[in-house]
Write a structure and sequence with these properties.
Elements: H1 4-16, E1 19-23, H2 33-45, E2 50-53, H3 58-68, E3 75-78, E4 81-84, H4 86-94, H5 97-104
Helix pairs in contact: 1-3, 2-4
């Protein structure tokens, strides 16, 4: 059974921000290319987002994968719902779908 403590922590995190990115590193210092790309996409959309550095918290690092049923990091959540990882974010961004998701969910650009 999944760790309910980790699940509850993750639930609290994703519900605490309109947009939240579980990533390796921080937005200023991403620790992998996929996390760097995810940050760049969100910054290009001009949305404010929270982030969690999974390298600092092994419980969250493994827990978020089972929470979303997605095997890789980064992971993007919008209004508490899992959107996808870096590749899905890039595809959605290039097709204009990620901006639509933000608009549809009431996430406004900060710029």
């Amino acid at each position: 059974m999944a760790d309910t403590n980790a699940d509850q922590r993750i639930k609290t995190i994703v519900e605490g921000d309109d947009v939240h990115l579980f990533m390796k590193g921080t937005p200023l210092f991403p620790q992998c290319g996929f996390s760097s790309r995810a940050v760049a996409i969100l910054e290009h959309l001009g949305v404010e987002f929270g982030s969690t550095d999974v390298l600092q918290d092994p419980e969250i690092r493994s827990g978020v994968k089972s929470y979303s049923n997605w095997p890789t990091i980064p992971q993007l959540y919008v209004k508490g719902e899992f959107v996808g990882g870096s590749d899905i974010m890039l595809e959605m961004y290039e097709a204009g779908e990620l901006a639509e998701v933000m608009r549809d969910k009431g996430v406004k650009a900060s710029v």
